[in-house]
Each structure stands twice: as C-alpha cells, then as structure tokens.
Amino acid sequence: RLSDRLRGIIAERVLEGSYPPGTQLKDTTLADEFNTSRAPVREALYALEMIGLVRSQPSLGTWRCGVDPARLTDAYELRATLEERAAQLAVPCLAEDLLTLSHALADLERAAAAQDAQAYSRAIQRFHRHIIMMSGNREFLRVWDFQHWELRTRVAAQRVSHELVDFIGGHQAALKALTVGDGIGAGQQLRGLIERFLRVHNALQTPPSADH
C-alpha cells in the first residue's frame, strides 16, 4: 500500500536524522513531494504517531518529529506480556522452529559484536516474532504486528547501541529454555530482556543531577 511505503520513507528520515527532533511535517507538503493526495500521507503519519515517532499538532495541521518515551514504554510493557505468554504456549517446540530461532540468534550475536544496530534490529524482529508465531495464537500475532515492531525495534536498537552485546545472554537463555520445553522459564527470560531495555531506556531519558 502507498501509505505503508510512505510510512517507511518518513520513518527512515526520522531515524537517520534527515528529520531532526522538532522538525514540523505538513501533510500538504509531503503530498506534493510524493505526488499523491493527503489521505495516504495522513494515514502514514497517524501510524508513525501511534509508535511515537511523530506527534500531531491538530490546531496547526502539522506533525512534530521526535520519539515519545512514555508511548514507547507503554508499548514495551504490552510486548512483555504478549511474549511471556507466547513462550509458555510455544512448548513443546518443533525442531524447525528451534532451528529458525538459532539462526536468528546467530545473526543477533554477529550484529551485536559489530555494533550494527540495523542488522541487530532485523535479527531481534525475526527471533521475537517467531516466538509469537510459535504460540499458535493468531490474535497475539495480530496485536504484535499492529504495533509496528519493525520500526520500534530500530528505534530501540539505536538508543541502546552501546549495550547491544549485553542483551545476548537473555536471548541465549530463552532459546535454551524453549529447547528443553521450559516455556515458563523462556517467558521469564523474554520479560526480563524487555524490562532491562526499559531500565536502560528510561535512564537515558533522565538528565544527570547537578552537583551542588
């Protein structure tokens, strides 16, 4: 869909810095740039607002770029609940599912060692989404996909790029737990990873206190 393509382009510009925080976006200007009507542009911007990359300014008819920390936190708390339960439902696991997770984990380890945030986010997406799929719960997958984690994960990986390696252990432990049929343990590991990210994320939002 055109709105999905526009969403990806605008998100890319926000994430790479072409649209720095505070940049104002007008749907009319974007519609002219992409030679389309305002409807798909607005749809793309609304989707980006939902994941916190832009914020609407209704009285001005514009959107302002910038990640919304509170919205990101809320989304990750929902994700923790979904993934913990998905891991519980995923066992016993099929051999091909465990192999898929192993390949994603290997990519994750390589990306973390190279501090490649984009490759890391792609591997994270494959690993976590596959566990949601393994649950067999179609509503879990629908809700997970609706949150646009392919974009949220890129935001997250960039924000904690200096600590990517520190999150590998939890993924290794989650896969090990799934391999031995311990869905509860795997779910606890996944929740722990998300909670750890939120602690790191929130620490980045808190300015250091001044010494007096």
Structure notes:
The chain has 212 residues and is mainly α. The protein folds into two domains: 2-65, Arc Repressor Mutant, subunit A (Orthogonal Bundle); 69-205, Up-down Bundle (Four Helix Bundle (Hemerythrin (Met), subunit A)), CATH 1.20.120.530. Helix content is 71%, strand content 5%. It has a three-stranded antiparallel β-sheet. β2 and β3 (62-65) form a beta hairpin. α4 (69-90) packs across α6, α5 packs antiparallel against α6 and α5 (95-114) packs antiparallel against α9.
Question: Which structural traits does this protein have?
Answer:
mainly alpha; 212 residues; 71% helix; 2 domains; 10 helices; Arc Repressor Mutant, subunit A; three-stranded antiparallel beta sheet; Four Helix Bundle (Hemerythrin (Met), subunit A)
